[in-house]
Each structure stands twice: as C-alpha cells, then as structure tokens.
Amino acid sequence: MIPLSAYVVVSAILFTTGLLGVLIRRNFIIVLMSVEIMLNAATINLVAFSHYLESMQGQIVALFIIAIAAGEAAIGLAIIIVVFRGKISTNVDEMNLLKW
Amino acid sequence: MAFLFFAYFAVVSIVAGILTVSLKNPVQCGLALLALLLHVSGLFVMLNAEFLWAVQVIVYAGAILVLYLFVLMLLNLKTDDRYFHAKTPYLLAPAAIGLAYLVFLLVRSPFSGSRGDASTAAVLLNGDAHAVGIKMFSDYLLQFEIIGVFLTGAIVGAIVLAKTPKSIETRRDA
Amino acid sequence: MSDSIDLIVKLIPLFPLMAVIVNGLFGHRYSHDLAHRFAWGSVLMSFLCVLAVFTETLRTGAAREVIAYKWIFGGDLTINLAYLIDPLTCIMLLVITGVGFLIHVYSVGYMHGEAGFTRFFVYMNLFMVSMLLLVMGNNYVVLFIGWEGVGLCSYLLIGYYYDKVSAAKAATKAFVVNRIGDAGFLLAIFLVFVNFRTLDYTQVMQNAAKLSPEMATAIALCLLVGAVGKSAQLPLYTWLPDAMEGPTPVSALIHAATMVTAGVYMIVRNHAIFDLAPIAMTTVAWIGGLTALFAATIGLVQTDIKRVLAYSTVSQLGYMFLGCGLGAYTAAVFHLMTHAFFKALLFLSAGSVIHALSGEQDIRKMGALKSKIPWTHTLFLIGTIAIAGIPPLAGFWSKDEIMGHAFVHHHYLLYGMAAVGAFLTSFYMFRLTYLTFYGTSRLDHHTAEHVHESPMVMIGPLIVLATLSVIGGFPGVPPENGWFHHFLHSVAGVTGEEHATPPSLMFGLMGTATIIALLGWGLAHYFYSGPTTAATALADRMPGAYTTLLNKYYVDELYDTLFVEPTKQLGKLCDWFDRTIIDGLVRGIDLGTDLSAAAITWTEKHVVYAGLNIIGYGNHILARSWRRLQTGMVHQYAAIIVAGLFILVHLILLIWTGGGSTGYSAR
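^ Those are the sequences you sent over. The predicted structure of the assembly is below.
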C-alpha cells in the first residue's frame, strides 16, 4: 500500500511549483496555468484523503474543483482578451494602474 | 507493482509542473501542462477514482487546456526575452527552504479524520461513478445546483467581457 | 358728609402732585402759559379744599384722621399714609396753600422769559406736595417723608441757576447742613419707636406721660437737632443766607414762609414730649434767643438786599423757637403765621426791586427809588413796619406776645435778648428801606434808564400780602385770649397759658415793645435817610467790630476749618486707599490672570501641539513607508499574499489547534 503521506508530499511539491510559477512568470497566461497546477495539487490531496478515510466527500469536492477551474479559466482568459485589446502586451509588470 | 505506477505518475507530474513554469515558449508550457493533467489523472486511477480520471481528461485536458491554447494562438504573442521576473533568483532559495519546511511539517502530522462509509470494497463493487453519483445526488444536491449556476454565470461573464465594444460614435447616439 | 370731607382731605396734596406729573412729563410740549396755569391752578384748588376742611374743623372743633393708603402693616409696625387734621394742621395748611398760591402767581411774572420756566413750577409744586405731606401726616414717617421732600426741593430750587457755581455750591451746602439735622431727627424717630412701639402721633402723645424724664429729654433733644437744621438756628444756620442764590420767589416761599417753619411745627406737634423735658425746653429757648440776637447783629451791616432779609428770617425764627421753649406754643404758631405774611411780602417786594433794577441786588447801588417804583416802595414799607413790630400791624401782636410771655414768666435775660433783638430788627429793616428807596441815587447809569414798575401779576399778590400783614394780627387779639388762642387751645395750649396776665403789665409790655420799635426806626432815620456820612463815620470808628459783623463772625470759615476740610481730607484718604490698595489688588489679580493665561497658552502651543504634531508627523512617516506597498504590480501583491498565507497557517497551527496535530507546539 502506498502511504497517504506520499500523496500528500506529491501534492505539496506540485503546489509549491504552481505557487512559484505564479510569482515568477511575467506572462499572464502562464500565471493562469500555474494556478491550474495549484488546483490540481489540491485535488490530488482531496482524493487521496477521500480514499484513505473511506469517504466520498473528497471526490465530490474534487468534481466541484474541476468545474470551478473551468469557470475561472474562462473568465481569466476573457479578461486577458479585454486587456490585450487595450494594450498590445500581456506583460504583468505593465499592468500597474493600481499603483500609488 | 502499484508503487512503480505511483512513482511514474508522481515523478512525471512533478517534472511536467516544473517544465510548465520554466519553459520560454507559452505553447510549450501549455503542452507541459497537458502532460501534467494526464498524469495527475493517472494518480486518480491509483486511488480508485476512475470517474475522476475520466472527467479530468475530458474536461480539464480536453476543454480547459484547449481553451488556453486557443487564446494563446489568438493573441499571437511574441516570445518575450524577459519572461522571468527580475527578482526570480532571490525567490528560489526561500522557495526551496519553504518546500522542505512544508514537507517536514506534513510528514510529522498525524493524519486523522472522521471515517466515512465508502470503503474500497464498496466502491469497487459498483464502480466509482456509481458511488459518486449516489452521493452527489442525495447529500450534495444543493452544491451541485450551485455549481451549475456558477458555470452559467461564468459563461455569461466571459461572453460579456470578451464582446467587441461598440465604437464611440454609435455609443453616443444610444 | 364726613366721607366727602375725607375725600377733600385726600385731594389736598393730590392737586399739586398732578401738576408735577403733568408739567414734569409733558411740560416741554406746550407753552409756558399753559404750564403756569397748571401750577398755580393746582395750588388754588388745594387752597379751596383747605378752606372747606378749615370750615369743617371750625364747626366740629375736633381732630380728624383720614387714612389715604394702608402702607405697612404687620407685626409691631403699622405705618399708613394717613392725615391728621386738627387746628394746628389747619393753620399751617392755610398759610402754606394761601401764601403759596400768592407766590405762585407772583412767580408767573418774575420768572417770565426764563428758559427753565416749566422746570421751576414743577419744583415749586413738588415742594408744595412735600410741605403738605409734612404738616398733614399723622405719624412720624409721613412727616419725615415730607421733611426730606422739602429738603430735596430746597436743593433743586436753590440750585435752579445750575450753571452758576455759587448757586450749585449753596444748594449743596443747604442739603448737607439739613442732613446733619435729619440725622438727629431720625435718631428721635427710632427712640420714639423703641419707647412706644408705634409711630402714630395720637398714640404717642397719649402715652407720652409714661416716658422717664431722661428718655423724654433724649427724644426732645434729638428732635431739636432736626428742627435746628431745618429752621436754620444756631449752629446750623449757615445755609440760609447762601440759599439766597435761588430765585426770589423761592426765597419767599421756602426760606421765609414755609420750609423753615417746619422745625417750629415739629416742636409744637411734639409738645407733649417737650413738656416732660424741662432741660430740652430751656435749650430750645436759649437757642432761639441767642439766634435772634446773633442774626440781628449780622443783619446790621449786610449789603445785599436779600441777605439782610435772610438774616432777619433767621432772627425771627429764633423768636419762634424762644416762644416754643417758654411753653408759649400758641404764640410761636401765631408768630409763624404773621411772619409768613410779612416776610413773604418783603421778599417779593425785594424781588420787585431787583426786577425793576434788572438784577441789581447790592443796596449800595440803589437809592431814591421811591418815586420811580411807588407801588413797590409802599408795599415794602408796609412790610418793614410789620416786621419792626409797630402796632397795629401783625408783627407787633405776635412778637410782643412772645416777649411778654418771657417777661411774665421771669425769664428776664431772655426777655432782654429778645428786646435788643427787636430793636436791632427795627433798625436794620428801616436801614434797608432808606438805603433802597430814599436818599441820593447811586444807580448804575445803564440800570437807571431801565427802571420800571413791576407788572400787575407781581404787584397783585403783594397787595394781598400787605393787607394780611396789616390785619393778620387781629385773630390773636386780645393777647392770650383771642380767637386764635381758643382755636389752638386743644392742640398747643397746655403749659403756661392758664396764667392770666394782669392788664396793666400787659399794656406796659406792649408800650415798651412799641417804644423799642420806634427807637429803632428813629435811629435808622438818623443814620440813613439822608446822606450816610454818620453811618460810615461810626463804622470807621469801630473797624474791628464792623469787619467781624460784615464777615458774619467768620462762622463759615470756622466750620470750614473744623468740619469741612477734615472731611475732605478723610475723603482723599479713602480715595488713596481705594486707588492704591484696592485697585492694586485688582490689578494684581489681573496680572496673575494674564500670567496664567500666558502660561497656559505656552503649554498648549509647545507641549500639547507638539504631542499632536508628533502623532501627525509619525503618521505621515508611517504612511509614506506603507504607501510603497501599493505598487500596482500584481506580482508583488501575489508575493505578499503568499507571505501572509504562510504566517496565517502558522498562526492556525500554533494557536488554534495548539500545534497538536503536527507535534509542533509552543513547547
């Protein structure tokens, strides 16, 4: 049997990778992709616990997470398109209208 | 045997993830993401959640990722030279230390929680889809409906956001 | 019937009071003609009321008390604005309203053309109100109200020409000297209340016998002090000659006929108390006698026509006091009445002379006016004969009665003083007449051209007064047994009048008095009817005596040094005290307040504001550094979120779950 902690460690590593991607990359679409990575990491965690605690709850929530990820991706990309219309650049550093 | 599969799926997922965040070309990143998604779904299979494996591949890899690729192609981005943040080197060390710390914490934690009623045998009896369906449409019906509403809102929002705005002259007349 | 008389009694002081209010408040809106009609009209109405009351009193012969207004009642003290009408009051009222009316009519002519015409009549009517209250009151309080009122009006009228410094000073002097007397009077009122627990005349007089002789003497002497101040006797007479600064009608009414007689009235009213205090009576008699002689001597050499008359008033008042002191109250009142007639006549005639000479009052600048102002001359002469005491004019009867009383009751020294006084009176009055009307004209050239007789409005009252001076003595004839004495018997005829004088002695005394008066006339004729060389020669031979008399025995200067200057110095001392010490204290407090205010301001500025500024500045610094967080760079926000997440997770692990699940605890 594969111990639960293995899955949890994998999930942790993936999560950190995704987080790092959000912080490092300058292209906004890659940032969104990194967010997808984080979501997947969380899903792994949930499903692992669902299996080891013999409960369906985790899997159901995982389904929900996938649905939400879909919605979020759609909206995020729509925003990117709107921004792209305004300025021909998706560079995050140049989206700084919120500054002081 | 199962351990080998697990090792394969886990390692490839991790490598794919690292590739996603570090490749230069966005399309290449997307493809790495695809690999990630598929191998994560493999991990699901290891956990007796084949329904999720199917859903992950169909929805995530088949729809969401495709959407990403559509937008990438649409925008036709030039590959930027400076695709990493300026302060990136400063982040890697803290990230590594943080990761080690996190793993250390997690390993030391006693995992416990309330046990449910879906033992492995019960799931394998009728299949994962059946088990998920039974549970979803009885105890979690409300959340299911809410997710539906949410998805509707996301679609409408996406359409509204991405619409071509009217030109300024016609807007004034309206 | 009695109710209507009561109403008439209440009306007597109300008529002049209404004239005061109307003329005082609205007088500036209408002409002088209307104003004076209100003035003498009201006095005439009062006189008619008095006649009615007099007739009633003659008929019933009893006293009558009328309460006009219940004023203070409660506990021990009941003081009402109430009137007592008995024979004494009737006589006084007749004199006041009758002579007052004549003087008001005269004033219309005398004050014609003056700017303060209405003001004059307002004050005169106010005086009438006060004097009427004084004599009509049935208790000491109403008497005192009238007493103070006449004092006030005297001040107002003496100072009528208020822009003359001498007039203002004279008015103040009159008021202050009066005040000294009033202090004594107040003391007497307090003593009366303490002894009798009431201030009504009737109750006091009924219970008067219960007083111990010492208490009676004390009360009587205090009353005497008041009377001396008001009636200008020694030593409080100095204000009366200076009071001549006022217009002549004022001198006639107030300082001859009425106000100065208030003291005599007051003594007669209180005779029940005086009778119990022989020491006080003797004091009264001697003050009267000495004043009579003293004032007569000063009058010998004065050169202002009104001043001579003023000193003669003081002297005649001395006779009245002498009469009171000897117990001859009726005689004193009799003399009061006749004196009112001829003194008013003399003053008003003098006013007529002054009017004719366009304001000249110095007799050294008069002379040979007999043919130029014949009416005035005749009337003045009648007055002089009356005052000298030559029968059958009024002055003889009253003065002789007092002197006779003194002689008959063996007060020979007082009789002597009175006789010498009578001689001197006759002498200086005829001197005055001769110097004014006879001899050679010493008139200023300009004045001589404008000599004119006074108008009828002024001569008319004089004629009436002259008639009264002639026939006014007959009510008191025969002496001690005339109608007058019987009328006043119930009020004033208690002591010493039962003693019937043998007729031979009476005629002897009358003869002596006549001879004395005629001697005075003769001497004056010798010295002054022709050229006055003999008089000047006599004066030069006795320069010391002459100067002393001329300077009124230097009494004014003496009072100045003894009383006025020390009081002024005391005043200056108090002023210094107030200015330096008290004001210093105030300024010190002021300085202290300023200093503390400055300290507080400094603290506020430097300490409090500094504190506040630090808060503000610190806030500014903090804000400046915190502001840098808002870079607008999404990456940075994400990094911060991660850092926050890190901290949050630790917090949850450590605090919420106690670190148990990870084994990572605070241990």
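The radius of gyration of chain B is 22 Å. The mean pLDDT of chain B is 85.

Shout if you want it in another format.
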